[in-house]
Specification:
Blueprint: E1 3-12, E2 15-25, E3 30-34, H1 41-48, E4 56-61, E5 64-65, H2 71-77, E6 79-81, H3 94-103, H4 109-112, H5 118-137, H6 153-165, E7 171-175, H7 183-198, E8 202-206, H8 210-216, E9 219-224, E10 227-232, H9 234-238, H10 241-253
Parallel strand pairs: 3-8, 3-9, 6-7, 7-8
Antiparallel strand pairs: 1-2, 1-4, 4-5, 9-10
The chain binds adenosine-5'-triphosphate (ATP) and magnesium ion.
The site of adenosine-5'-triphosphate (ATP) has 12 residues, from strand 2 and helix 1.
């Protein structure tokens, strides 16, 4: 197992956003996290990636307890994410956005790399080369010098993926990457998620878009009201009465 969540709970005052959430993700798989609005999906990402500390429970990643580590520490362990609301540096170029993603992982950090010594310049060239390769990988070749705010929406989502991959994660967490995409962009995203897995990166995917979830995921956990109500293959989940009642009935009708 690459990641296990054991009895994760998160309370916000009187609200139980997550209660005893447990699941396990195999290395090299694509694992989906689905459920209705407010089910706790993003809160789980936030607890995993150090934005929040869980109120109880444990995350084990690559065999180590990472519960409650800070955001930079979690990134250094090899977990990267994208955000439900796109968070790019809008006034920076496409290339710079990806390079910033890489700096979250390097020892020197973003400001260290600004130093003018030779080693830093060599590292900078290396980071730039990797960033260009990643932009090619996500389908944004030739867009390097555009300001990220000028990219169409679907491309901004791809740029977020490239930036997250720049940190060379072993687990990539995607929070609703298909949101706002048109059907052909969604097809491209499904292909991209498969290619990311083929690179050896395990994927944890929050998504409402059922064609994506059912098409790419090896296994799914279904959250409802902060609790896991099913963890199974997409085919099993599709036929689970509780899941259909809580969520899929409405989602399929969308
Ligand atoms: N910082 C916070 N303070 C208080 N309540 C919060 C906070 N973050 C999330 N919540 C609450 O926790 C619950 C779960 O929210 P969360 O954003 O995790 O849901 P979600 O499954 O990601 O929903 P969606 O599909 O709409 O993105 C909601 O009731 C939400 O209002
Ligand atoms: Mg969410």
């Amino acid at each position: 197992m690459l990641l296990t969540a054991q009895n994760i709970s998160k309370r916000f005052g009187g609200l139980a956003a997550l209660t005893d959430v447990s699941f396990a993700i195999d290395r090299g798989s694509i694992f989906g996290l689905i459920g209705p609005n407010g089910a706790g999906k993003t809160t789980l990402f936030n607890c995993l990636t150090g934005v929040y500390k869980p109120s109880a429970g444990r995350f084990t990643f690559e065999g180590a307890d990472i519960t409650g580590l800070s955001e930079p520490k979690v990134a250094q362990r090899g977990i990267a994410r994208t955000f439900q609301n796109i968070r790019l540096f809008r006034e920076m170029t496409v290339l710079e956005n990806v390079m910033v993603g890489r700096h979250s992982r390097t020892a020197a950090g973003l400001w260290g790399a600004v130093a003018r010594d030779r080693a830093a310049r060599a590292e900078e060239r290396d980071i730039q080369r990797t960033a260009v390769e990643l932009l090619d990988f996500v389908g944004l070749a030739g867009q390097e010098d555009r300001l990220s705010k000028h990219l169409p929406y679907g491309h901004q989502r791809r740029l977020e993926v490239a930036r997250a991959l720049a940190a060379e994660p072993s687990l990539l967490c995607l929070d609703e990457p298909a949101a706002g995409m048109n059907p052909s962009e969604v097809n491209g995203l499904m292909t991209l998620i498969g290619l990311i897995r083929d690179r050896g990166v395990t994927v944890l995917l929050i998504e409402h878009h059922m064609r994506v979830v059912m098409g790419v995921c090896d296994r799914l956990a279904v959250l409802d009201g902060g609790c896991v109500i099913a963890e199974a293959t997409p085919a099993e989940v599709r036929n689970d009465r509780r899941v259909v009642e809580a969520y899929l009935g409405a989602a399929v009708a969308q």
